[in-house]
Amino acid sequence: MTSHQDQTYPSHIDWRFGILVSMGPLVCINLGIYFHKANNNTLGTLCMLSGILSGICIWLLKFPSQYTLGTSQLIIQSGLLRKYIPYVEIKSFEAASKQEKSPVNPLNRIRIQHGKKATYVSPIEQKQFIVKLQEKVNQSKATK
Prior knowledge:
The chain is of the alpha+beta class. It has helices spanning about 15-35, 40-60, 125-140, and strands spanning about 5-10, 65-70, 75-80, 80-85, 90-95, 110-115, 115-120. Strands 1-2-3-4 form a 4-stranded antiparallel beta sheet. Helix 1 runs antiparallel to helix 2 (about 40-60). The longest helix is centred in the first third of the chain and has 23 residues, at about 15-35.
């Protein structure tokens, strides 16, 4: 749940990643069109449906991609998926080096250490996000 005081930061999405992810569904749809023109309607329909369904699944799992600084926790949203990180669990956060491996696609990202885990985020407004996150973490530790 979000309140009126929550601040949401959209995620940076690399255009190269967008092209790469959209290639699978587009290839399936074009293959379906080819098979329809070659009078193989069953295979054509199957390819087109699989392309459309995979595109919808990708869309539902990727958009919107955003980070919300709530009152007591950071909410990371990628499509229908959400991850909650309470501020009291955040040990540190810093700009991640470009060589670190991560499921986050852009090279400009922030590594958040919480518990024994690390999570990577890539808000568009990184400096403002870091300042506000630091305020939230400090507030949670002061009330602890």
